[in-house]
Amino acid sequence: MKNLVLIGMPGSGKTKMGRILAERFGLPLVDTDQMVVEKAGKSIPEIFGAQGEPAFRDLEAAAVREAAALNGAVIATGGGVILREENMAALRETGLVFFRDRSPAAIVGEDLTGRPLIGSDSERVYRLYKERLPLYQKYAHHTIPHTDTYEEAAAMIAALFEKEAEA
After folding, report:
1. Helix and strand tally (H, E) in the chain?
2. How many other C-beta atoms are found inside a 10 Å radius of the C-beta of residue 81?
């Protein structure tokens, strides 16, 4: 069985949707950010602060390789997973990739503390979205447009995942 992979901006709800989808399909939820935190023994802001973004991206790539090697898991990724082509090659090889295209305006309304590339800088959300959108679109098998709730987005993903599984 293929993995169900969730990509999107920080604050787009990947982990929340992942929980819904994992429960719906009876699959394990794997969160690559959580894997990094567990392996490093530090929070993501601590990793960024002490070691910098390149070190975090190396840890993230190792987590992605481990997650992609699974079979039949829901994988919630960090927002920057698309910055390394090898991450996306591994995830696409064993999974169906869904991009939740949540509007930057909606993301700005969320609590973004603990997100080192955004923090409290709402303008950064718009800049990151503009920079990353082409990569999200490039790597996604399916794009899920902005919805009012995580449940609606998860239902759209579930329907597409089930359709692909039947094919």
Report:
1. 8, 5
2. 30
CB count within 10 Å of CB 56 equals 24
Structure tokens, 128: 């990151």
Residues with Cβ < 8 Å from 163, sequence gap 6 or more? Answer: none
Strands (E), 102-148: 142-145
Pairwise CA distance, residues 121 & 119, whole Å: 6
pTM of the predicted protein model? 0.93
Longest dimension (CA), the chain: 47
Instruction: Say how many residues make up the chain.
Output: 167
Alpha carbon 6 to its chain centroid, in Å, reads: 5
Phi, psi of 74 (to 5 degrees): -95, 120
Tell me the pLDDT tens digit for each residue of 108-152. Answer: 876 656 565 565 667 888 999 999 999 999 999 999 998 889 999
